[in-house]
Amino acid sequence: MRRWKKVFVLATFLVFCASLGATFLVRRGAPLPLVAVETQQFPFLGSEDALLKLVIFEDFLCPSCARFGLGTFPQIRSAYIDSGRASCAVIPIALTESSKKVANGVLSVFHRVPDSCFSFIEAVFIHFSHHKFSEADLFHLGTKVEGLDQDAFVQDIQIGRYDASLKENWKVAKRDMGSNVRVPAVFINGEMSPGLSFEVISAEIEAIAEDR
Q1: Is the pTM of this model over 0.85?
Q2: Could you tell me the sign of the dihedral formed by the alpha carbons of 54, 75, 114, 96, in that order?
Q3: Could you report the per-residue pLDDT of 170-187, keeping only the tens digit for each?
C-alpha cells in the first residue's frame, strides 16, 4: 500500500484590486506559505522520493487536457517520471456535469485498481476526443479495465461517490490559481508552469532542479 506522501504546492493566487485596477501575479521566489496535498487521494505516478513533484489539474472531457494528456504528458513521463527524477499527481477537476461523471469513473478505477488508472485516463482522452460523452460509452471503457468490479464502477458513477472529493479539488485549484482557474495546469514543486508544451515544462523542470 502506498504510504502517505505530502507534496508541497506553493499557493499561487491572482488578486484583482478594483480600486487600483491592478493585477498582481506571484513570481518565483515569492515568500508564500506551503500547503500540503495528500497524494494518496489522487492518481499518482513515480517515486515518492523524487525531488521534483509535478501536480496536474485536469478535466477529463476538456479538449486541451486531452491534447496535453495524449501529447505532452507521455514525453514528460518518459523523460522525468519513468527515470525517477519526478513524481506526478493528477488532481481531477469537473467543469460540467458530464465531466463529473467521468471524474467519478477515473477515481473509481484509481481506488479499486490503482495500477490501471493512468491507462484508463488515456483511454478516456482518446475516446471522448472523438465521441460525444455518454454514460454507456464510459461504462464500456470500464469493461476494458482488468480486475475492475463493473457493478461497483457503474454505481460509483451513478451515485457520484466522489462528488465531495471533486468539490475539495475545486477548492484546491482556487487556492492555487485564484480566480483564474484553468485546465490543464501544471505545477512543478509548487510553481505553476507558464506553458504546456514539453519544451516549456522541461525548461522549468531543469531550472527548478538546478536551483535545488
Answers
A1: no
A2: positive
A3: 999 999 999 899 999 999
